[in-house]
Sequence to fold (345 residues):
Amino acid sequence: MTQNPPPSQQTPNSPRRIPNRRVLIVGNYCHDVLIQNGAVVAETLGGAASFISNVLDSSSVSCDLVSKVGHDFRYEVSHAPIVVPEKETTVFEAYFDLGIGHADRVLKRVSACDPILPSDIPDSRFDFGMAVGVGGEILPETLEKMVEICDVVAVDIQALIRVFDPVDGAVKLVNLKESGFHHVLHRIGFLKASSDEALFMDVEEMKRLCCVVVTSGEKGCRIYHKDDETAVPPFLAKQVDPTGAGDSFLGGLVVGLVEGLDVPDAALLGNLFGSITVEHIGQPKFDLTMLQRVKDEVQRRKKQCNLSSSQNNDHDEFHARLSPARFQDSPLQPKLLVNGLSCDR
Ligand SMILES: Nc1ncnc2c1ncn2[C@@H]1O[C@H](COP(=O)(O)OP(=O)(O)O)[C@@H](O)[C@H]1O
Ligand SMILES: O=P([O-])([O-])O[C@@H]1[C@@H](O)[C@H](O)[C@@H](O)[C@H](O)[C@@H]1O
Fold:
């Protein structure tokens, strides 16, 4: 197969045969069961792929999605999964002993569908690939194929370092070095980890290989790349269920990158979508007016950055403009958050 050179290496005479497709998402949908004090509180569509495609679809970013489910898959989704008739859909039970609004949860994978194989992935080229497994469905050879066919690959570390207790399915983490993926990591563009997961990698080593983004719930996120470290401020949210925040964050980050924002601005969009997600149980339905306001702010920000001759590293203004766009119709008081501190307007 003839591959297009990555955009940075394309010249007017490059043999660019077929335009890239935009985004490839690889990861299984799952059924999430939320449990508090021994009782089932909610059952929802889960899996990073579902949260991410929700963000991309709502933002009009076209994507292909490769996911496997079993005969018992119960949800209508806009990107059809591969159905494996002899298997059951991946199921996660999430135990919230402190209440489902609380960030602390214990996850158990109680059923696992099949892994995604390189042959399940289309032989096209993509601008962005997203390796976003939740239940061990991304294999080293799956990621190897993704880095071959995608110009930039963003990886959620949870796809690489999760292992599952053979008896009760409890999720445990192994160090990235022992994950079986270490040899591919120099070929990925972005590695996203929550602050708990970041303890299972050497950030100093990884930031030399790719852009590392560490999310910290209500505190926002930090970006590490080479010798740079950038804190990206959060948005206020009334947390109801933390499930999917990291996934929606990654979706927002990729929407920003596809739109041509620089990485801190794109991460700010990630924070925005993460903050909206924690206000819902299951998949958030994004308000159309809010989405339009956010799109307008993104276009405005792009123009502003194009006009400015010097590198514009001041993201506070973009944050200050996104905040009211997000809170306009919300019961939360619109507040300005600067460097993680909230101030009344
Ligand atoms: N309580 C919260 N308030 C505001 N934003 C939040 C909150 N929780 C999560 N977010 C946003 O979602 C992102 C991902 O959340 P986090 O909890 O760090 O990830 P994960 O779901 O992978 O554990 C955060 O960086 C932040 O931008
Ligand atoms: O909450 P989060 O860490 O972003 O991502 C979650 C996964 O950790 C979990 O395994 C899955 O069942 C949820 O649907 C969601 O994808």
About this structure: Residues 29 and 47 are 5 Å apart (CA to CA). Residues 288-307 form the longest helix (20 residues). The longest strand covers residues 39-46.
